[in-house]
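Notes from hallway chat w/ T.B., transcribed later so I don't forget. T.B. wanted the structure written out for a chain they're using in a teaching module, and asked if we could keep both sequence and structure tokens in one place. Agreed to drop them here.
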Amino acid sequence: MGTDRRNMINFGLGTIGRDMIYTLVSMFLVVYLTEVLSIPDRTLWWINLIFTLGRVYDAVNDPAMGFIVDNTRTRFGKFKPWVAVGAVLTCFAVVLMFTDFGLTGSKYVISFAIIYLFWEVAFSANDIAYWSMLPALSMDQKQREKIGAFAKICANIGLFAVVVGIIPITKALATVTGDLKTAYTLFAAILAVLMLGGQCITLFGVKEHKEVFKEEDKTSLREMFTVIFKNDQLLYTAISMSLFMIGYVTTTNFGVYFFKYAYRNEDMYSIFALILGVTQIIALAVFPLFSKKYARRTLYAAATALVIAGYVIFFFAPMHMAFIGTAGILLFLGQAFIQLLMLVFLADCVEYGQWKLGKRNESITFAIQPFINKLGAALAGGIVLSTAIISGINEAVTPDDVTPQGLLIMKIAMLIIPLILILAGYLVYKYKFRIDENLYKQIVADLKERGDINL
């Protein structure tokens, strides 16, 4: 098996368990707080504040973590040590986050804040180091797309395994343990073991092409800010990604609530998620075929059109799976293409930054991704929490307790607000991002001529 193929497989497999853990926190932490722990509205407002403050904290933490990774010098390289440390600490934090210690009121809020912030630091270390390895695995755009596509397929396997399995598995565990709270703790522990196993595959199976790049001096703190704010293409990518992720994650985080209170059949959520998961994985698998025939700009426009069509149909659809399923398939087909395009845009920004500013700085560049993912998850969580309170869902015992007005508020927050955000993200890309296939070839040629890379 060639190095490129081995790297593609081992890099991708490593993220299945990672994305299981991330999905548990980003999509189901709010569900756990409201539906399992039944935390009162007053405490939820404080937790919502913690999510918001966490984003401010991340504004410093993620770039700082990228700065630390870029300046790491070990015999194992600069990425793998942080992948390992971050994985272990992330798993520890997530198990604590989904464990009920019997605390209430201010004691619970304080303990939750400590654990949540600890998780953010740990996952940032792992996530930044993991994804910033991608540009070091290949300098070829098409090969990067293949590696990125397989990694995203594996990530989505992890994501949808949790989305599809969390309700039936936790119910089964609750039957055995007699307690849904304990079931969630055991579920988190199982995912932690899977994450550690997958990360070992990456750590021991991936080979970086270190010989291609010249050894660079360490990045100073001042240069870190230069990397972020003077790489204009990185900034535009970050803005576009942020708008897209906030919208997309907001929609997905409403899934359980929609099927419980609007569709009135919570068990259909797992079936719906399974269909969409298969759809998304197929979309990622065929992306390289479309990439051979069409420019990235064309693919992004087509994907955005699919997403828009999906949202419009979903909003006006009657409570029938034929209509809702069709809308979901359109939405997730487009979303899969956009997520992969965003990943390769970030990878290309590494060479663009090296070309413009003189250094590669993979980890500082890729620090943008976890920051955006957590920004999207937290702001989406804030939107969901606020909507659950305002619409009356949090206090509802049965679907009949939610008024038609409350359901309309939920649908607007779930579908209309995300649609506006995703469309805005596309417009930022369309008018500001300029690293196309031709410019990238010119960048690589110039870097070779300067002696910055050896191909």
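Follow-up for T.B.: Residues 9-205+217-450 form a domain with the Growth Hormone; Chain: A; fold (CATH 1.20.1250.20). Might be a good example for the class.
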